[in-house]
Specification:
76% helix; mainly alpha
């Protein structure tokens, strides 16, 4: 993909150019995850619609993209004590794939001011899987119970194998 292409040179034409420009300006590199999240929403649409959670899943998708964009921004650009990044600079840097875009840049700056780079990464490592679980409609308790069940089954298989070897 040629980043500095003009609307007429862009692979997807003028409409695709402006769509890419806007998405990358808002989310930076994380805009590449938008099609994947849209496919997930499409696959589970009926379930989400029947449960009344379509809006929640869309919001969770945007929050996930913003959180990842914030980490990308903090790691790529680094942090600064003063907010020298105005929205238009964040947008242009995001569209040029040099930062996390507007949303990622603003959240990244807030996280950097509060917990610096290591804290931002730790928060993301904890929050992103939780958001993904809720996006797929799975609770942490369900995941934990499945892990326990799997460990018990594995322990039973090992015990059976040991018993068979001892005979």
């Amino acid at each position: 993909m040629k980043i500095d292409a003009t609307p007429t040179e862009h692979l997807m034409g003028p409409v695709g150019y402006w769509l890419c420009y806007c998405l990358f300006g808002i989310f930076g590199w994380t805009a590449l995850a938008a099609p994947v999240l849209l496919i997930i929403l499409a696959i589970f649409w009926r379930k989400y619609y029947e449960e009344g959670f379509v809006a929640l899943r869309v919001v969770l998708s945007v929050v996930l993209m913003t959180l990842i964009a914030a980490v990308i921004h903090v790691c790529a650009v680094g942090g600064t004590e003063d907010m020298t990044y105005l929205v238009d600079i964040l947008f242009k840097d995001g569209a040029a794939l040099k930062s996390g875009g507007v949303l990622g840049g603003l959240l990244g700056w807030l996280l950097y001011m509060g917990v610096r780079i290591p804290g931002t990464i730790i928060i993301t490592v904890i929050a992103a899987p939780l958001i993904l679980m809720f996006l797929f409609g799975v609770t942490p308790a369900y995941v934990f119970s499945r892990m326990l069940k799997s460990m018990k089954a594995s322990k039973a298989r090992r015990a059976a194998r040991r018993a068979a070897e001892d005979d």
